């Protein structure tokens, strides 16, 4: 499985908020994705109905997951393909390596796949003598930079074009050193030329799957670069990496998901390519792979079924939650420390790698609710973030300082006379201390606030409760006893 | 006199003020403004003494027992007040009240009591506009105000049009929207001290957006968000005055703003 630094979230954040390049990239992302999504939804009056339909569809699938997965497997086998059920990352790595070795593969081309990231496939293949080559432009860039993706649909969103040029110069050393790489177009052309030969030479092509269709035994990928088609059609062997919850019953259902996915992700009505693959090349096919394998990965998902986190399995990986998340917008994807960033990651990561290894993630949210409001599958992300916090509290994973502060606050606020006395004293003392300025520049033990903000002093030096009680016509019920 | 022309006087709507802990200590003017507005709208206002904190810090930190302990005291206080409605000058705190039934998901008896209170609890501006149909604001303030929509009020309670409808009745005041009105200000209760550096980045973006509107006043419906944005605006050297929307609606816009001295 991919290594995690989620437990080091605080350090990661400190690094991220001081990264000027990252700030520029994230600003561009926010305006781009958000406005495009909004415009696409404005053009589709039935979008809200479609969300309900998508949610109902996924809930139905999750209630009958075994049936649809078995139906999918049966159909794939009928069409000459193979299905490999993998309980965890290690099993999936092994199956992929075995397939590569069975055909003597030296290089594999890869379409974009988050499951590949989840199981740490590239490192594993390299260690075992097989060279993986990412063919999605973003993935290609971060592979050259030896980085993980920072966004689930825009993996190199944190990389500015000058940094891409640097990576290309460092890697493509056979090209003229003085070539112009100042424009995105020239970078794209160079990547395309470099990848062309790799597509033709690859022995195995590995793609992810946006969906698996039970009715037809089909895997579906959506791409905008066409690299997915070349990855899965040209080599002798096509391997599909998919997690269990990707299955939908019918082609019609796939259409519902596709209509939601592209609009929520990039604001497109449909992605440039939507590719359906149903098994290996048939006798009368002109092209296509000789072998078709589907890896069905569990890796902790079946344990989410029937739990308070089941709704998370409706996720179709559009990225809308992170595109609209103010926390993601402030720190980017790498700070989250594992494969899936943003709100969906803060719910999914603890489920897959253990809450004890990802305890800061569910807390890194103001629970502002924007993620849920834009989620095409209406996943109640804030509710589940809070559910993780409750598990942390019960399992003593909450930082001791926070637990202590809560205990003191609860003790105070549940003793009415003590609370009135304490707020009275607090308002009075802070008012005197705050003086004529009316606010504090620095408060000991509250630097997290006062490092960037002043703190207003209480308005009057007396609480509302005291002031109101002194009014001649005060109407107070259940007075202090 | 024809007896039929005299209709029996309708008993006034009885409302309990949920002051909220931040307004109680930091901004009592918000409480007095709320009482004034409710009375102008014809309500009988009572202030239950037994109220302290709604338990949101506990609930959002995963401490269900702590949240239950505080919620029980609040529910009891509001029950004893024997009111038709509970109203608070905060979307966030009313959002928490609406969560009380979930807080007691393992306790049917308390869940029932929590639900009864939750169902009659309202955020101030939406209570005035949506429940009472009252918009007869009599207030005056010269200037331009930017309005910030607090997240819980907006997304959970649907508070957005109501404060603007009420502010339209303030003579002399022009109200402007922010360019990114959906964006959280970064307060988030305990979030702002647990993740101070992220919160600081968020409130910096918000402050820039507020300044860019050209407004001289910032208004919102939650004291927590207001304290956060005021603190950042002041640190950036901005002269923008920060107030709770209720203060302006109750014609108390001439008092020193949040964080201002005498």
UniProtKB/TrEMBL annotation, chain A:
Q: Where is the 4Fe-4S ferredoxin-type domain?
A: 306-336
Q: Which UniProt keywords apply?
A: 4Fe-4S, Electron transport, Iron, Iron-sulfur, Metal-binding, Repeat, Transport
Pfam families tied to this protein: Fer4_8, LUD_dom
BP-aspect Gene Ontology terms: lactate metabolic process
Q: Does the UniProt entry include the keyword 4Fe-4S?
A: yes
Which InterPro entries did the record assign?
4Fe4S_Fe-S-bd, 4Fe4S_Fe_S_CS, FTHF_cligase-like_sf, Helical_ferredxn, LUD_dom, LutB/LldF, NagB/RpiA_transferase-like
Q: Name one GO molecular function term.
A: metal ion binding
Q: Which domain of life is it from?
A: Bacteria
Cross-referenced PANTHER family: LACTATE UTILIZATION PROTEIN B (PTHR47153)
Provide the protein name.
L-lactate dehydrogenase complex protein LldF
Source organism per entry reads: Insolitispirillum peregrinum
Q: What is the lineage of its organism?
A: Bacteria, Pseudomonadati, Pseudomonadota, Alphaproteobacteria, Rhodospirillales
Automatic annotation (TrEMBL), chain B:
Q: Name one Pfam family in it.
A: CCG
According to the UniProt record, one GO cellular component term is:
cytosol
The Swiss-Prot or TrEMBL record annotates one GO molecular function as: oxidoreductase activity
Residue ranges of every copy of the Cysteine-rich domain listed in the record: 15-97, 146-229
Q: What is this protein called?
A: L-lactate dehydrogenase complex protein LldE
User: What species does this protein belong to?
Assistant: Insolitispirillum peregrinum
């Amino acid at each position: 499985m991919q290594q995690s630094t989620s437990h080091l979230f605080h350090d990661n954040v400190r690094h991220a908020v001081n990264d000027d390049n990252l700030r520029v990239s994230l600003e561009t992302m926010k305006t781009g994705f958000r406005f495009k999504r909004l415009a696409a939804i404005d053009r589709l009056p039935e979008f809200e109905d479609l969300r309900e339909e998508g949610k109902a569809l996924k809930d139905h699938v999750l209630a009958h997951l075994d049936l649809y997965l078995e139906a999918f497997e049966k159909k794939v086998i009928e069409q000459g393909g193979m299905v490999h059920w993998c309980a965890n990352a290690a099993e999936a790595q092994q199956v992929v390596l075995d397939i590569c070795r069975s055909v003597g593969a030296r290089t594999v081309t890869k379409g974009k796949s988050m499951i590949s990231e989840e199981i740490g496939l590239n490192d594993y293949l390299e260690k075992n003598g097989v060279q993986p080559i990412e063919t999605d432009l973003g993935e290609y860039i971060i592979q050259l930079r030896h980085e993980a993706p920072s966004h689930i649909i825009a993996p190199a969103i944190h990389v500015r074009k000058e940094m891409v040029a640097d990576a290309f110069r460092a890697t493509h050393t056979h090209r003229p050193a003085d070539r112009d790489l100042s424009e995105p177009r020239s970078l794209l052309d160079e990547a395309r030329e470099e990848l062309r030969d790799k597509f033709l030479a690859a022995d195995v092509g590995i793609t992810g799957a946006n969906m698996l269709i039970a009715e037809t035994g089909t895997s579906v990928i959506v791409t905008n670069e066409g690299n997915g088609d070349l990855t899965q059609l040209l080599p002798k062997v096509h391997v599909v990496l998919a997690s269990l919850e990707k299955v939908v019953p019918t082609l019609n259902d796939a259409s519902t998901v596709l209509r939601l996915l592209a609009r929520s992700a990039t604001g497109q009505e449909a992605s440039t390519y939507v590719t359906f693959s149903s098994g290996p090349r048939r006798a009368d096919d002109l092209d296509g792979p000789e072998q078709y394998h589907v890896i069905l990965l569990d890796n902790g998902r079946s344990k989410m079924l029937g739990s308070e986190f089941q709704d998370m399995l409706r996720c179709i990986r559009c990225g809308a939650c992170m595109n609209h998340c103010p926390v993601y917008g402030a720190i980017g994807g790498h700070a989250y420390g594992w494969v899936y960033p943003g709100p969906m990651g803060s719910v999914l990561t603890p489920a897959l790698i253990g809450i004890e290894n990802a305890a800061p993630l569910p807390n890194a949210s103001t629970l502002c609710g924007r993620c849920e409001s834009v989620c095409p599958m209406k996943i109640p992300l804030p509710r589940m973030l809070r559910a993780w916090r409750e598990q942390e509290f019960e399992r003593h994973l909450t930082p001791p300082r926070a637990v202590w502060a809560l205990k003191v606050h609860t003790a105070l606020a549940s003793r009415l006379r003590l609370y009135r006395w304490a707020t009275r004293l607090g308002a009075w003392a802070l008012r005197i201390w705050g003086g004529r300025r009316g606010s504090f520049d620095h408060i000991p033990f509250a630097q997290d606030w006062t490092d960037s903000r002043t703190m207003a002093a209480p308005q009057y030096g007396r609480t509302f409760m005291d002031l109101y009680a002194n009014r001649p016509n005060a109407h107070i019920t259940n007075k202090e006893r | 006199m024809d007896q039929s022309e005299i209709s029996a006087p309708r008993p006034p709507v009885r409302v309990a003020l949920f002051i909220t802990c931040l307004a109680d200590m930091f901004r009592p003017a918000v409480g007095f403004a709320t009482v004034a507005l409710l009375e102008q709208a014809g309500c009988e206002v009572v202030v239950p003494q037994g109220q302290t904190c709604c338990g949101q810090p506990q609930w959002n930190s995963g401490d269900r027992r702590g949240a239950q302990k505080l919620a029980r005291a609040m529910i009891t206080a509001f029950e004893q007040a024997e009111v038709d409605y509970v109203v608070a000058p905060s979307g966030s705190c009313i959002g928490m009240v609406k969560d009380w039934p979930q807080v007691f998901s393992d306790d049917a008896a308390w869940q029932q009591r929590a639900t009864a209170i939750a169902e009659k609890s309202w955020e101030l501006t939406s209570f005035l506009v949506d429940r009472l149909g009252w918009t007869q604001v009599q207030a005056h303030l010269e200037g331009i105000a930017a309005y910030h929509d607090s997240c819980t009020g907006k997304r959970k309670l649907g508070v957005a049009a109501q404060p603007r409808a009420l502010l339209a009745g303030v003579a002399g005041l022009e109200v402007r929207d922010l360019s990114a009105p959906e964006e959280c200000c970064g307060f988030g209760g305990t979030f702002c001290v647990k993740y101070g550096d992220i919160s600081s980045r968020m409130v910096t973006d918000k402050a820039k957006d507020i300044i860019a509107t050209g407004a001289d006043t910032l208004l919102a419906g939650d004291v927590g968000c207001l304290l956060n944005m005021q603190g950042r605006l002041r640190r950036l050297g901005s002269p923008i005055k920060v107030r709770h929307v209720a203060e302006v609606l109750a014609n108390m816009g001439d008092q020193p703003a949040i964080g201002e001295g005498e």
